[in-house]
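Record type: monomer structure entry
Structure origin: computed from sequence
Chain ID: A
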Amino acid sequence: MEKTLIILKPSTLQRELVGTVIERFDRKGLQIVGIKMMQLTDAILAEHYAHLVDKPFYPALAESMKSCPVIIICLKGCECVQVVRDMIGATNGRNAQPGTIRGDFSMSGQRNIVHASDSVENALIEINRFFKPEEIFEYEKPNISYLYAPNEI
């Protein structure tokens, strides 16, 4: 089973959408194996968005991400990275399809509700960036046989 990282951005907290967004992942059948609230710092943002630091919009992105705490979630499931990417939709909420998280709740490219890892490799890097090993939990999901066929587990 794959794991992926989700960040519920300040726009999610400020717009009181935390429960609604988490419920979507929960109803899909993804397992929450780590969750915490934290205030992002300049250092962690520069590391997390290293590929964007030189872009003209980065200062506004960093300020937005520091405007209030965020909720960091590690999800687990079969092909979890792609499932979550499909669920959240296009980066710019104006271009995201209705039915996706961004399509239903975002009108912005930066204040777009949620960050999600874009590959299995980056998911591992991001999970290790935001969670200590002891903050990720392995436990049996009692309804797993109703979520997956035996050959998918």
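Annotation 1: Residues 11 and 113 are 6 Å apart (CA to CA).
Annotation 2: The domain at 2-152 is CATH 3.30.70.141 (Alpha-Beta Plaits).
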